[in-house]
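Annual report, structural modelling task.

Input specification for the adenosine-5'-diphosphate complex:
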Amino acid sequence: MAAFRTLDDADVKGKRVLVRVDLNVPMQDGKVSDATRIERVRPTITELADKGARIILLAHFGRPKGAPDQQYSLKPIAETAAGIFGRPVAFVDDCIGDTAEASANAIEGGDILLFENTRFHKGEEQNDPEFAKALAKSGDIFVNDAFSAAHRAHTSTEGLAHLLPAYAGRTMQAELDALEKGLGSPEKPVVAIVGGAKVSTKIDLLQNLVTRVDALVIGGGMANTFLAAQGVDVAKSLCEHDLADTAKTILAAAEKAGCAIVLPTDAVVAREFKANAANEVVPVDSVPADAMILDVGPDTVKAVNQWIDKAKTLVWNGPLGAFEIAPFDKATVAAAHHAAERTKAGGLVSIAGGGDTVSALNHAGVEEAFTYVSTAGGAFLEWMEGKDLPGVLVLKQA
Ligand SMILES: Nc1ncnc2c1ncn2[C@@H]1O[C@H](COP(=O)(O)OP(=O)(O)O)[C@@H](O)[C@H]1O
Ligand SMILES: O=C(OP(=O)(O)O)[C@H](O)COP(=O)(O)O
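The model returned the following structure:
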């Protein structure tokens, strides 16, 4: 028996179903540049629509600070979602209030609404019971299909499940099944690659991760914070200097646990964050004062690939560089190809995840070659730590 109720257990015909999805997709020039997260929720949406549910999608986008901010509007995503679902998706410019409720009440079975970014309200991230009540007014049933946001104890991922009958969507089920199958008892050595830009929200979980893996390769923006903590001048690079103590604690925890830490030894630096900006490769301790690290260098790539060769299990979240702008995609693409080849040759279980990581693997053309690609980054790493994810736990308790 499943640990939580699924769509098999829900009577959705004619009901207003609030479906939490993760539409926090990479965008470029106002357009969705990687639609994987939208494609992954299609089975849930199609099933609900075919069963006659009145579907209301709830989602966040980016990190607005609890107030409306049009650069984080979900409106441009409605059209892409409609194309992928093969059904119209009507956009409603708030997720609570009279218009939201009236819109939800007006739709018929099989119709789909997309409510505006839940993070336009402070109550979302505060998991405020009053905000939960306001959201719940538009629904009879709650379905959570956003595994990649399940590590957030927010109203639309957690609080709402206390107010409405709550069920897991098909993607939520599929993600948990696939991770359990691939990483339930991973073959050692286990090597993790963590990069990307969400340093403050991911750094804490590394402390636990180093006790579960044999080597942790740190790249991307995350590496700069560790290098700076070791006294390296990273100049204008993305870096959270106030997390130096946290970085040092993680390095000490890794040493205690016998986990090798692999940091960049060389870097590709540029003066501008834009495609084809003039760039050079320098040792990490020689970053020019007016430059920033935008990728790890070729020596570091060799070291990363050697760790991939040693691994029997690879977990990867976060690109090694700013892969969206050429040529700062080189290290990510090279490591992705190497991991893909090792996986295809047999002997490596490769599991990667994260909105931008999926996009980077697609960019490298290797998504199909990995053992499993999750839509989740932070949630996947927290799952790996053995933590109960709030959005999953509440479904189990429902
Ligand atoms: N050295 C770097 N400097 C600035 N940004 C970087 C650097 N390395 C990686 N990034 C950025 O990290 C972002 C992805 O980070 P993150 O959101 O943590 O990954 P994911 O969505 O896969 O979990 C990408 O947009 C990429 O441009
Ligand atoms: O993109 C997400 O996570 P990820 O970057 O870890 O893959 C999720 O949508 C969660 O977003 P958040 O990290 O702003 O809470």
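The mean pLDDT is 97.
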